[in-house]
Amino acid sequence: MSLQALVLPRRVLSMVLVILALTHLTHAQPQAPVTDFSASLGNLLPCFSRPVNSSHIFYGVMFDAGSTGTRIHVYTFIQNDPEELPVLDNEMFHSIKPGLSAYADMPEMGGYTVRELLKVAETTVPRLEWKRTPLVLKATAGLRLLPPEKAAALLEQVRDVFDESPFYVPDDSVSIMNGTNEGILAWVTVNFLTGHLHANTRKTVGILDLGGGSTQITFLPQSKKTILKSPADYVAKFDLFNSTYELYTHSYLGNGLMAARLAALGALGAEGLDWRVFTSSCLPKKFRDEWSFGGLTYRVSGIPDGYAGYKLCYQEMLNVVKGIIHQPYELKHTSVFYAFSYYYDRAVDAGLIDGTQGGMLEVRDFKKSAKEVCNKMSKYCNVHPFLCMDMTYITCLLKDGFGFKESTVLQLTKKVNNVETSWALGATFDHFHKLKIH
């Protein structure tokens, strides 16, 4: 893998240094004098006068164009003093479904959804700050799974919407993010928000992100064998506070929750969708409906005269992960993993955690719940017909895919310190760095 395909070491270091400066969210650390963050932005954008040494508020807008939804993050930062780095003050978050990839054959509609979400930014960011506020969209697995020409058409529509907006549009403001960057930026963001990025400690948390089209795993190995036994492109190396960090990180395109459903149903790349019915022992026997993903609609069904349940479903899911998901040499010595996106959503649906507070689970909790759901599928047929399939896939992915022990602890969360647990915050800082805001 090229250095550019990762996050370049110097750029990662600069980005992380900026992120770590926001430790007012978790802990206060003395910082060396730095350039006024907002003043640097003023060198590139229209400048509005303000009293010397006064506090200044500025903003950043990041779109996360995922496979099952498009989300907007509007970040508010405060520059208290030119000699100090800014503080992350607030995040305004909103999402809309389906994702851009659902409009592969109607790119104008994809642009419309982005235009609608931009209203959140327009109501959050004061009008006088619009021309100074960077506007960025990064697409993930949904567009990576599309034919290149269809993905390009969607991105072109988004660029048109951005060009019509009143915000500042940087170079390369609309792009498809590679999976490695997705994992690295999420890891940096979560470890910043949880206060684990210190100069004198290597204790960190791992991250597990389960989207619709892809899934990511990123952690800091404690054993050199993990690095040595891993494929070269599963390792990302960068410097941080006079220490060199080597992350184990990989994104599996096609192993997100929705893509896994397709694989289990035998519908990946299938033709004749108008007349074919795709069946699975993971679905209730009497269930029959249409299901859409990635702009295509599939007719799906349980097996009326066959068998259903956890054991048969698990065998289907093994075919989705076996030989595809790499098992790191060691996971047992790694600290707690933070799991979000569909890990969180399905744990809520299964009643394992509170939908607002989240909670801590062991891998065995997913397994136990999957068995209960699959053996009582008729109970969930009307509300969550795919819950058995999804919970079984998560269990299989964690155990037989990544190779986690059943006792491994997962922290299920949507937010840390009121900030969404995703790559979006890290990506926002990365763009600030490109604008020489540091």
Q: Please, could you describe this protein's structure?
A:
- Residues 1-28 form the signal peptide.
- Keywords: ATP-binding, Calcium, Disulfide bond, Endoplasmic reticulum, Glycoprotein, Hydrolase, Magnesium, Nucleotide-binding, Secreted, Signal.
- It is an enzyme of class 3 (hydrolase).
- GO terms for molecular function: nucleoside diphosphate phosphatase activity.
- Its main location: endoplasmic reticulum.
- The structure is a single chain.
- The chain has 2 domains: 33-177 and 423-434, Nucleotidyltransferase, domain 5, CATH 3.30.420.40; 200-257 and 308-416, Nucleotidyltransferase, domain 5.
- Strand 8 (235-240) and strand 9 form a beta hairpin.
- By secondary structure, the chain is α/β, with parallel strands linked by helices.
- The strands form 4 sheets. The chain has a 7-stranded mixed beta sheet with strand order 8-9-7-6-13-15-14. The chain has a 5-stranded mixed beta sheet with strand order 3-2-1-4-5, with helices on both faces. A 3-stranded mixed beta sheet has the order 10-12-11, with helices on one face.
- Residues 1-53 have low confidence and may be disordered.
- Helix 1 crosses helix 14 (424-434) and helix 10 (342-349) crosses helix 13.
- The relative contact order is 0.15.
- It contains 14 helices and 17 strands.
